[in-house]
Design goal:
This protein is α+β, with helices and mostly antiparallel strands and about 190 residues long. It has 4 helices and 6 strands, in the order αβββαβββαα.
């Protein structure tokens, strides 16, 4: 059987060569919104080496929350809090002599600012599976000691003027498109 030809790797920019504006324009293409997600202590990494955690939106739909680019180092505090919650649940269940609870029941409410992405993949049977990803820019949560902790960095999106009404209609929704009333009372103080 003939071997497939070697396909050269895609040359991506070196990490140091990527400007924050360039990085954020790729991460937050669909605009930036704020959502409340419940994160659980199930972690992973993406093919690009970004950190991820399992979460659930208000409807109970499973979401992969991705901490990409220069925000990866800020993920440690959230990881530590979720691991702490897991250890507490494990200890409590052991003291009660019961089977360890479902990991999805260990939830940390997190206020997130970022952008939604839908991803399509095929399973083993060839069926298309759709999953939701939330690319997070900033996040805040209440630690076990009651302190509200805020992490991440505000997205740096270019504010190039859009000329015509048609151009405005065709561009992705941005944070500035949301009415000021919809932005009041946010945890990030915009």
């Amino acid at each position: 059987m003939p071997m497939p030809p070697d396909i050269p790797r895609i040359d991506r920019r070196a990490r140091g060569a990527v400007a924050p504006e360039y990085e954020d324009s790729g991460l937050f293409k669909g605009g930036v919104i704020q959502v409340q997600l419940a994160l659980v202590p199930v972690f992973g990494t993406t093919s690009r080496g970004d950190c991820s955690a399992r979460g659930f939106n208000a409807d109970g739909t499973e979401v992969t929350v991705v901490f990409a680019g220069r925000r990866r180092p800020h993920f440690q505090a959230l990881y530590t809090q979720l691991r702490y919650m897991y250890a507490q649940a494990q200890h409590k269940d052991a003291l009660l002599g019961v089977k360890m609870r479902d990991i999805n029941s260990i939830q940390l409410p997190v206020q997130c600012e970022g952008s939604w992405r839908a991803q399509r993949q095929q399973d083993e049977q060839g069926q298309e599976q759709r999953s939701l990803h939330f690319m997070v820019a900033r996040w805040a949560f209440q630690a076990h000691d009651g302190q509200t902790l805020k992490f991440g960095t505000a997205p740096l999106l270019s504010s190039k003027p859009q000329g015509t009404a048609e151009a405005k209609r065709d561009r992705p929704l941005s944070y500035s498109d949301v009415s000021p009333a919809g932005r009041q009372g946010t945890v990030f103080g915009r």
